[in-house]
Design a protein that fits this description.
The chain is α+β, with helices and mostly antiparallel strands. About 35% of the residues lie in helices and about 15% in strands.
């Protein structure tokens, strides 16, 4: 989806800081990270759905909250949508167990178990699918602006680059985020000339590399 999170090439936000020495500045950030990682092993959502939940935040909130607060907000959203908790439980921090007559299984637990047992592997062996492109092939990034999650940033859509590396076969982030399964396919490192992306404002002789799934690419 196109939203405030896709900030590549946007003006007015200043340079990206590159001198940070610590990942966690505050203790609460460590707790937020640990809780999200713990929930991710048990709840019926994957990392791509978590990223998409962050992308769905209102722009004003996205720009003003801390990075790890975004993680926590996304986990809250996904747990609510899965029906594993309700707003009251999140507010007081206590799970309410509603048992049906003759049933001693908490509501939602069966669905949770089924979802975690059906999890897809993170990557696939070489040869799962034949590559559509070879190293050195010129490709054009699709101009499509999907409503759901995508890892093709706006600033490269419609642009031409060159396949530099075939990274192998991986699950496709877009379909994983929709809950449509892994749709394994090749992912490539594509080199773009900076001048093609930024025009005269680009530093002369520079290029950038971006990892893109096969579904995003067409022959140029």
């Amino acid at each position: 989806m196109d939203g405030i999170h896709d900030m590549g090439g946007m003006h007015g936000f200043g340079a990206v800081p590159t001198d940070a020495e610590e990942v966690f500045v505050h203790d609460w950030q460590k707790r937020a990270f640990a809780l999200c990682e713990t929930v991710a092993w048990a709840a019926p959502f994957n990392s791509d759905q978590h990223r998409h939940a962050i992308e769905r935040m209102p722009p004003a909130a996205y720009l003003t909250v801390d990075y790890f607060e975004k993680w926590a907000i996304a986990c809250r959203t996904l747990l609510l949508e899965a029906g594993l908790v309700d707003a009251g439980e999140l507010e007081n921090g206590k799970k309410r167990f509603d048992l049906s007559p003759g049933d001693h299984t908490p509501v939602g637990a069966a669905e949770l178990i089924e979802a975690t047992q059906a999890g897809a592997p993170m990557s696939y062996p070489e040869g799962t699918a034949s590559p559509a492109f070879q190293i050195g092939t010129r490709v054009r990034v699709s101009r499509a602006s999907p409503a759901g999650h995508t890892r093709a940033p706006r600033y490269v859509r419609g642009q031409v680059g060159v396949i530099e590396t075939d990274l192998g076969v991986f699950q496709f982030a877009d379909t994983m985020a929709r809950g449509d399964g892994p749709n394994p396919q090749h992912c490539y490192t594509v080199r773009f000339e900076a001048r093609d992306l930024w025009g005269d404002a680009a530093e002369a002789g520079t290029s950038m590399r971006l990892d893109l799934w096969e579904a995003y690419l067409d022959p140029a």
